[in-house]
Amino acid sequence: MAMESELITADMVEASEYPELSELYQVYGVPLTVANEKVRVEGGMPEQVFISQILQGIGVSPMVSEN
Predict the structure, then answer these.
(1) CB contact at 8 A, 54 and 33
(2) Which residues contact residue 39 at a Cβ distance below 8 angstroms, ignoring those fewer than 6 apart?
(3) Which residues contact 8 (CB under 8 A, 6 or more apart)?
(4) Distance, first Cα to last Cα, the chain
(5) Is 5 exposed, middle or buried (0-12, 13-18, 19+ CB in 10 A)?
(6) The model's pTM
(7) Percent of the chain, pLDDT > 70?
(8) Quick one: pLDDT at residue 61?
(9) Is the pLDDT of residue 66 over 60?
């Protein structure tokens, strides 16, 4: 998502190399996505499910596309 919009930034951290961050964010499994310090999405999932969970977690209604 960060590649698609200048409004989104992303960082990737190797949990085993930064144990203090792993503890701070309670990393127990990967992938782990933390958005705006509000929502945590852990594990792999289809893109649409991931986006829906992130948007719901930060209080944004997902746009419904009509195909």
Answers:
(1) yes
(2) 53, 54, 56, 57, 58
(3) 1, 2
(4) 21
(5) exposed
(6) 0.68
(7) 88
(8) 79
(9) no
